[in-house]
User: Fold these one by one.
Assistant:
Number 1:
Amino acid sequence: MILLLAVIYLAFISLGLPDSLLGASWPIISQDINSSIAFAGIVSLIISVGTVISSLMSTRAIHRLGTGKVVLISVAMTAIALYGFTFAQSIWLFVILAIPLGLGAGAVDATLNNFVATHYKSKHMNFLHSFWE
């Protein structure tokens, strides 16, 4: 159980990284794709909307697929989207990739929160959220 909790902590750390990295890297990205800095807000908004939608739908997904499959699919969606950001040459590709990034991040967040809340003591939930970047 301790090893699983350590993996969950690592997953939670990785949830916060894309949010801060997008803001820090956008000035360079915007130059590379000939876009304005304002588009970072649009990409961030799409990610946030996807996060909210998938968080609200996560209970259904957990009941239908189980915790492990929801986390696996969501992490894959997030990883593919972030990998796609590496090669994106237009703002529209960033916008499209923001959708699976937000949906995946929200589902991972809600699913891990649910798992820790039902299987561990409350102190672990507090530690978990202190790991979020």
Note: The radius of gyration is 16 Å.
Number 2:
Amino acid sequence: MNKSDVLKYLKDISEEVKDLSLKVWNNPETSGNEKEAANLYREILKNYGFKIKEVDEMEHALIGEYGSGSPVIAVLGEYDALPGLSQNLDTKFNPVQEGAPGHGCGHNLLGSAALGGVLAIKKYLEETKKSGTIRFYGSPEEETLIGKVKMIKTGAFEGCDLALSWHPMNANVAIESTFLSNNSIKFKFHGISAHAAASPESGRSALDAVELMNVGANYLREHIIDSARVHYTITNAGGAPNIVPKEAESWYFVRAPHRKDVDDITERLVKIAQGAAMMTETTVEYEVLGGCYEMLGNKVLFDLTHKNMVEIGSPEYTEEELQFAKTIQESLEPKLVEAEVKKFVRSGSEKTYLYEGVVEKEKSDSVQITGSSDSGDVSWIMPMNLFLTATWPLGVPAHSWQATSSSGSSIGIKGMLYAAEIFSGMMYDLLNDPKLVEEAKAEFNKKTENNKYVSPLR
């Protein structure tokens, strides 16, 4: 059984993989609530002869393992949806249920592609009796940037040699390093309530402290590195306006390219909170809800990813799919679409709706992902790759109704199946060339020799 046989088998089971993706898309569940999705994955993996391992204290996390011996390859899957992004399969805003969740980050595609890849390689291991172990990691709570961080803390990834990952997006590209490191922190201020008109002097406003902290944080922006991000919401602003607020709370995200930068900025933000408490004669306590690392690049796996993307070849689209993409684009800000089209499409090309082909290796660093992911943490405990495939029209931003709609469309399914093929091709190469595994591990060990992973979960 060679690589082409593996890819042919994947095509044979593609309807089952597609069906899984659409079931998850039609039943979106937010982070920490992915009961039905996790059970769908468990059922399929069991039916295909995988051994299921549960993860301590994580009801919706799972590991499906098949094979024996080295190398041990982890394939990362996710299936959580985003709140408020409910959307029918439509080219106009049309929620299934107003305010309900939807797959605006394409995780219905993300997990099913990973599963498709391991099912195909399971068949290869079964047929050839070759040494090697594959593990599918069902990873919940990615949108809250905490799922894989928790899984690492429980030891769920112990024994793995390397990890493979991908994400739905607008283009087909291998990524060497990306993501911003992140901290998620809530600041709770405690004051003294009083009648805001009759005896304001008796009160100490927790809301004043929140507002002063936010002002301080905005001044802090001028004095941190350009690539850092600090953003917040007020999650509790008090009650009636005639009562001095006794309790108030703000929720901050701190992002930066490197974990050390996030830690340094967080330390300064805590001082601002303490200063706001002093100015208002309130008290403050803070809780780090979670955090994650940036992705540590691995050149060996980057090269292998790109090679397989080119070898396999990207999807082609029907006129109906191109028209769907065109109509979706028309719902977006034209300047944003134009900027992305110029970035990816050669001048003079008529195909400006969907990306076709594979971004050249030399240009891959022009594709920047300024969000964060708990997959980054995995890259700090073993060698890891990342690639994107075109599952949405050019110009569509993640976390939008347009992304939700596209993730349930035939465009999304084609990008998902392409990703499953890339996974299959990579695992085939890794199982048949032990030198690749050793080189990837050697590169990882060199990069982390004096910079070991420390969990953001205290």
Note: The chain has a mean pLDDT of 96.
